[in-house]
Structure formats: C-alpha cells, structure tokens
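Teaching note: in complex prediction, the entire set of molecules is handled at once rather than each chain in isolation. The prompt given to students was simply: 'Predict the structure of this complex.' The entities are:
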Amino acid sequence: MKASRKWAFLIPVVLLVIGVLLAGCGKELSGTVTVAGSTTVQPLAELLADDYMQKHSDVQVTIGGGGTSVGITSVNNGTVDIGSASRDLKSDEPQLVKHLLAKDGIAIIVKPGNPVSGLTKAQVRDIFGGVIKNWKDVGGPDHAINVVVRESGSGTRTAFEEMVMAKPEPAVAIVNTALEQNSNGGVKQVVGGDSYAIGFISFGYIDNTVKALSIDGVEATAVNAKSGTYPIVRPLYFLTKEAPTGLMKEFIDFCLSDEGQAVVVDEGYVSIS
Amino acid sequence: MPRISPRVTQRLALAGIWGTGLVTLLILAVIITYVLVKGVGDLDWSFLTTPPRGGTSGEGGISTVIVCTIYLIGLTMAISVPFGLGAAIYLSEYAPDNRMTRLIRYGTEVLAGVPSIVFGLFGFALFVTALSFRFSILSGSLTLACLLLPTMIRTSEEALRAVPRAHREAALALGATKWQTVWRVLLPAALPGIVTAIILSIGRAVGETACLFVTMGSTTAMPTSLFSGGRSLSMHLLYLVMDTNAIGKALATGVVLVITIITINAITNWLSQRFRARMTGGA
Amino acid sequence: MPQAGRLPSGLLESMKARYLIDRSSRGVLLICATVSVVILLAIAVFILQRSLPALGEIGLLDFLLGTKWDPNPVGDTPPSYGILVMIVGTVLVTLGALVIAIPLGVGCAVLLADIAPHRFRQILRPAVELLVGIPSVVYGLVGLVLIVPLVRQIGGPGLSLAAGIIVLAAMILPTVISISEDSIRAVPRIYREGALALGATSWQTMWRVVLPAARSGIAASIVLGMGRAVGEAMAMVLVIGMAKAMPNSLLDPARPMAPGIALETGYAGGIHLSALFAIGVVLFLFIVTINSIAIVVFKRGARA
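The expected output is the structure of the full assembly:
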C-alpha cells in the first residue's frame, strides 16, 4: 500500500476521532432536563431555559419542538422529562400531570395597510367559514379574502375553532379554500405579505409586520386577555408523567415563579397569577 | 410535407440547447445572488461564534448550529457511504442476477420516493424510543443514513453497471482476484457516478428539516456528545424564516450552508481524484 | 496454490493476503447488502403496519376517492379522511415540474457533455453540482420571497400550484442534469465517431445515437428527479398553499400528498396519524406505478 494513499484516507478518520473526543469534554453537569412538544410554547420555553441556565450553570435544559402530539408521546414513554402542549388533553390521550404555564390570546391579524381595524366575533366566524368572501362586505376594498389558518390538529387552530367557530350552534367549519401553514410564524409570514389575507396567531407572535384586529371592540392586548374581556384565550401547559421531582420540579417551579412569569409577560403571553 | 434539412435542424437544436444552458445559469444566478446579497450583511465573526438566543427575536448567532451540523453530516456519511456503496458493489458484482436482486433494486427505487417525514417517524419509533437513543445527533444521523440508503445504492449501482464488461474481463484475464478487480478497476472507472451519488446524498442530508425535528430535537445548546440533541443549519434557517423576522440572518445562515456544501463537494471531488490517480496510475 | 519452496520470499505471504482479502471482502460486502436490505424492509413493514388501523376503519375506496379531508372537524361531525384532492395535487405538481425539468435538464446535459467549450463546462458543472446540494429550505425560501409575490400579481393568493411547480422544477433540474450528463459522457466515443464517419450531423448523432445509448442513465435521472418531486415536503409547504379544496387552476393553492403528511404530523394522534401513514403507503404505490411506466418507456433495449 502506497504511503500517501493511506495518509489521504487516514486524515478524515483522525479528524472525526478528535472531534468526537473533544465533544466529550463538555462542562461538568449535575443534571439535564429535556422538554419537547408544542411549537407555540417552544420559543417561550427556550427563553425560560436560557434564564434558568444562567442561574444554574451546572444544569442543561434542552428544548425541542415536534408538535404537541410528539410532546405527549415522548413524555409518556420517558423519552423526555417534560412535554409541552398548547391545548387541553383529549380523552383518548394518556392522562398526564398538567402544569399551567401561561395563558395565550389568539389574535386575528391582517396586513398593516388593511383599512379594516376591528371585527365582531360573528364577522370573524363568517369570514373564516367562507360566508363572507369579499373585503368590501366588512368595510375593506373590493377583493376576495384570502383566509390563512393553521394545520388541522394544531393547538392554536383547535382553540380558535372551539372559541369562534363552534358556538353558537351549529358549528361552522373553516372554509376548505383556506391556506394552511404549520406554524404561527408561517401564518404571520403569509398574512404579512398579502394585503388581502386574514389569519390567526398566538399573542406571543404579534409584531409590527402584522396588525391585530380588535374583536367586538376589545383590543388584542395581554391585559385584555388576562381580564377576560378579550374573547379568545387558551391555556399553555407543561406536562409530566407523574408529579415532578428533582431538577424537573425546580425548572417548572422556576417557570411558574414571579421571575419566570415576568418572562412570560415580556413575550406577550398572559401570566397565570 | 417539406422536410427540414439536417443542417437547419442542427442549428435549431443547438440554439435550443444553448437556451437550456442559459436558463439553468439564470436560475442558479437568481438563487445565489439573492441569498448572497441579502445574507452577507448579517454575516460576521460574532454571528458565527455566538449561540442563538431563543424566543422569537432571532437574536444571536449560529455557533452551536454549525458544530451540530458538522457532527451530524460527518456521522451520517460515515454510516451511509460504506453501507450504501458496499451494498451497491455486492448487488452489481457478486449477487446472482435473479428475482431476489431485481426485487431489491426495485425496492430501493421505490423507497427513494418516500417523503422524509415518514423516515423521521420511523427513526422516532426505532432510534429515539425503542433503542432509547432519545433526541440526539445519533438518532438523527441513523435516521438520515436510512433515508439516504436507497439513493446511495441506486446511483452507485447504476455507475458500476455502466462500466463496460470488457474492463472486468480484462482484469480477470490478467489474474486479478475479484476484489482486486473491484477495488482497482471498477471503482476508479465508476468513480464519477459514485461521487455524484455521494454529493446528492450529502445535499439531501444537509437539507433535511422535517425528519430531524422528531429525531434530533431542535435545541440550540452546544452538543456535548453524540447523545446530545441539536439543531442543524437547515432547521435553524427554517426557524429564522418562519418564527422570527430576521430574514437577513436566515439568509446569512443560508450563505454558511451553501459554503459548507461547496466545501464538502470540493473535498469529495479532491478525494476521489486522488483515489483515482492512485488506482489507475495517474491515467 | 504453487509450491511454497520455489517462490521469492514475500510473494507467498502477499498472495495469501490477497486471497484472504478477496474472501473476506465478499463477506463484508454481503453484510453491507444484508443490513441495507433489512433496514429497507423494516421501514416498509413499519409504514404498512402503522397504516392498517386507518385503512381498516375508513375503507380503501372512501380513503382514495373521498374529496373531503377533515381529521379534526369542529363540532359533532365525524372526521373525514378522503385523499383524492391530495392525489390530484401530487399528480399535477409532479407532472408540471417534469414538463419543465426534463427538456431543460436533458438539453443542458447535452450542452455540458458534448457541445460546450471546456471552460464553459468548468464553470457550469460545479455550479450544477452546487445547485444539487442546495437544501429544499433555501429553494422554498427563495420561492416564497420571489416567486409567490410574482404569482400573486397575476392572480390568486400567490401560494399556488404554479409557484409549487416552478420551485419543484428548479429543485429537480440539477439532479436531472448531473446524472444525465454522466450518462452521456459515458457513451463510448466509438458510437459518436461511427455516426459522424457515416455523415451524420452532430445533432443527428446526438439525437439518434448518443441519447438512445444513454437512455438508461437519463431514465434513472428522471426517475430520481421524479422521486424527489413526489417526496418533497418542506419547500412545498412554504409555497403551494395547502388548502383542502381541489385546485381549479394553476393559480389556486394545491395540497400534494408529501407536504400533506408533513404538515399535520406534529399534532396528529390515533387514527389521524394512522391515516397519515396510509397516505405514505399510497405514495409508495404511486412511485411504484411511475417507475414501472418509466421502465417500459425508457429501458426498452437500452442495455448494450
């Protein structure tokens, strides 16, 4: 075997080995906490984790997404310590221990240039249900309304459907020409780019690329969500298999404490106290 | 019906073909220019060396993401290239050409079209849950390796089968063992096609997002071992585009991604040239 | 093996080594092949097994031909799991992308392999390989930011079948080009020289001699591109709209099967998740069908 050929093949192997060894030289940890689940909760959980890790540098908190269902399955079979959910548990799902992390309002958004600034709940229901099809019927320009929603099964969508579409009976289904996106960010992107679009997102995602409409005259603010005057609010949960212990408990306690809740409020969600 | 002279057909065909070349160049130019122009602004040393901050602000950089991506791709290729190439060689050179092998070939073609999210669910069930690897780079790499296997096998085998029979017969006539024929004659001859297979696979691996979310998690912490979770460049790009308004940073991530790919492609091409030179005596 | 005593020293050892390597290499390769086959089998079994509950409960015909897909209806309506809209979505977007990518791709491959001057090729070939490596997310992003607004100007919400087709065509183009080019270059020189010696123009040589000889490789590239097109999820989620209604025009949003699965996996459980696996099975069968057609169309008498 010629020396230089052997050499060429050894380099990547050596690099890989060195890399793996170096990787093992992490900091000394007293423990880890793993969280996975809802994409709505994920950004909030990441910030909480960052703050917690700054105070306790010997603990590693890793936050993952994957969706509420992945979170439920993972915490149920022990793959992660804490699951996160942006909706209530269904009856055919494993009954896990729920910890209310925060409350979250759902805002109806349009592009900032849209002349419409507020709607009644009935109008929202009719627009998303496909009954009102043109902006001119609610005070806007003469153009078709492009409805944007979340995917079927999303916590945000389920909450929206239950609070806006389901009552008064009979329930109205979201129109089947509605565009579907798989995250709050996605809905925000689409609505922010289309002058004739309307959609719904979590309060925590509102920024100046979209305009949140007032519903039945109530502005979409965290204060109004907390006081209950804003009509569309849903719970955000941390889930554990049994009563939490050790580091898990400490992290959850931190999130529910005043300090943690201050982060919650900062991000636009509603604190639980 | 008037016949068009071959010369005219020739001219038309040539014009058409140059046209396709220009269109392709245009597409490439549009993508690269857009990504570069908008992304370079946010690309600086601190971007590359600070970890990303959570939440929806998009602050921070991509240091942990780069490290995670390197581990992920390294491990994935270390698994899928040997297995895929080995299987391709076996199928093409050693296995008898019977129904079983035809079925296997067929199966690899079919599995190449299964969407990656399904592989993600498979990886979640097998590596993350059943084997208890949890959300980790290991689970992610193994899942990716499974994902790339069909493409790797299919394209490599096609390259090997394209080598004319004469090569094999000549080698055997000179007294080479089967393995020597494979290692010193066939692989060098099929190398361009195999390199294409590897480059295609790397491209697919680097671009995966959906199946990694459910096998590697999406944490932004610096990975401390192969059992840590992590987030790859593509996943982070998606997150920046969708959940934050930091389009500039998203494109900067894109630039890093493209540079990573260029580097890997260049290394692959260089390694293959060296291999070929050694095997064929510089021919 | 010859008598040990008469050979120069060292030769017997190296012959033994060579013999051992030859024997063991076969074993190693067999292991690789077996492991690969086992994994592929495991994946197939996994998908099939997870899809059965849904197929049992919904019924195959209702599943395939139903036009209503609503796994989590509001109120008391029972869920519907009809995927016809998604099947149509996949067919339309794949067909559209192929119609654009095949002529452009094979044409560009011919250009690179035979016609373009060396320096041109030196720039364009690495450029094509680069394009192959660019992840779907980037294509999706560029599509979202550049193509969707353009389509919106023409009509509709922008997120549409048209946007999906354009983005998908751009994605599979590099694959078609690179593999086709390899095949065209692999055609032995003799073929071209023979044709030219007989008085054919270079185009006639290409069209009637070289391309048919490279048929198998070109077909493989198209099949791979098609595989990628049918399986592409992330970029499609970003640009194609994913509405549940059947598209009536290129400007309407569509909902192909692969992004349909990816879109809902995060929050699906129970029968819904099983139904998503069932869509995966349909995708399987879809590819099988297309591949069979491709084999019949392209590979007739291709192997020399």
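Point out the following to students. The longest strand of chain A covers residues 97-110. The two ends of chain A are 73 Å apart (CA to CA).
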